[in-house]
């Protein structure tokens, strides 16, 4: 399998975590968003939407991280990233969707570039934008996590699920945008618990081959 991705991309980070949790080896194919490599013809031939990640296996090309992760879950069911019963699956998917549908898309590179280049926002305004939408999502996530008294160290139950696969990259991004995480003790504790697992450590942006050397 080839994973077209970028070290700092949250959606790429999701895929790396999911692949690692399932113990699937993959070839890392870097696509540099800083130089807008993803907008060139070569990458558009892989994904006409010009977004990472894309996962390629033989003749099969998969795009859209939710679709790719669901495919991985169906194709490699163990260890499961979704709980056994429908109500629990709905909860885990809802936690993931807060990040995947309501936080990440409006803080994406192309949205921030539009704020800068088309609307003329300065960096302070861009950071305020990111802070607004990340905190709105994290407020809800923190409340939901705090209310779940049967929860272990992760977002749901006692093992990482799809919800952690989505949350951890978003915490990384929140730190990059200087969001104050003090109001989110449950989120911070989950980030710490995941950070102790090899699958999450190996997926971290800083240790990817295209990350700047320290
Ligand atoms: N819904 C897509 C979103 C993918 C996406 O937004 N990827 C970002 C990186 S995290 C990207 O390629 N951005 C390029 C750009 O904004 O120009 C998914 O989940 O795969």
Automatic annotation (TrEMBL):
Record domain GST N-terminal: where: 1-80
InterPro entries (UniProt xref): Glutathione-S-Trfase_C-like (IPR010987), Glutathione-S-Trfase_C_sf (IPR036282), Glutathione_S-Trfase (IPR040079), Glutathione_S-Trfase_N (IPR004045), GST_Zeta (IPR005955), GST_Zeta_C (IPR034330), GST_Zeta_N (IPR034333), Thioredoxin-like_sf (IPR036249)
GO (cellular component) term, any one: cytoplasm
Pfam families, alphabetized: GST_C_2, GST_N_2
GO biological processes: glutathione metabolic process; L-phenylalanine catabolic process
UniProt domain GST C-terminal: residue ranges: 85-213
Extent of the signal sequence: none
Highest taxon of the lineage: Bacteria
Alphabetical list of Gene3D superfamilies matching this protein: 1.20.1050.10, Glutaredoxin
UniProt GO MF annotations: glutathione transferase activity; maleylacetoacetate isomerase activity
Keywords: Isomerase, Pyruvate
Coiled-coil stretches noted in the UniProt entry, renumbered to this chain: none
NCBIfam families assigned to the protein according to its UniProt record, in alphabetical order: maiA (TIGR01262)
Family: Belongs to the GST superfamily. Zeta family.
Name of the protein: Maleylpyruvate isomerase
Lineage: Bacteria, Pseudomonadati, Pseudomonadota, Betaproteobacteria, Rhodocyclales
């Amino acid at each position: 399998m080839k994973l077209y991705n970028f070290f700092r991309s949250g959606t790429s980070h999701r895929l790396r975590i999911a692949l690692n949790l399932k113990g699937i080896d993959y070839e890392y194919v870097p696509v540099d968003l800083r130089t807008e490599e993803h907008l060139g013809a070569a990458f558009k031939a892989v994904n006409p939407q010009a977004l990472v990640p894309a996962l390629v296996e033989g003749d099969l090309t998969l795009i859209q991280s939710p679709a790719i992760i669901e495919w991985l879950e169906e194709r490699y069911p163990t260890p499961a990233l979704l709980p056994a019963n429908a109500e629990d699956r709905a909860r885990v998917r809802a936690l993931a969707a807060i990040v995947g549908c309501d936080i990440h898309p409006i803080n994406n590179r192309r949205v921030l570039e539009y704020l800068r280049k088309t609307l003329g926002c300065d960096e302070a305004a861009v950071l305020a934008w990111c802070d607004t939408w990340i905190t709105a999502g994290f407020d809800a996530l923190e409340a939901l996590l705090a209310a779940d008294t049967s929860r272990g160290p992760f977002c749901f139950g006692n093992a990482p699920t799809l919800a952690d696969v989505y949350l951890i990259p978003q915490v990384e991004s929140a730190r990059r945008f200087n969001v104050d995480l003090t109001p989110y003790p449950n989120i911070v504790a989950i980030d710490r618990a995941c950070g102790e697992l090899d699958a999450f450590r190996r997926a971290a942006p800083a240790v990817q081959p295209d990350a700047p050397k320290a």
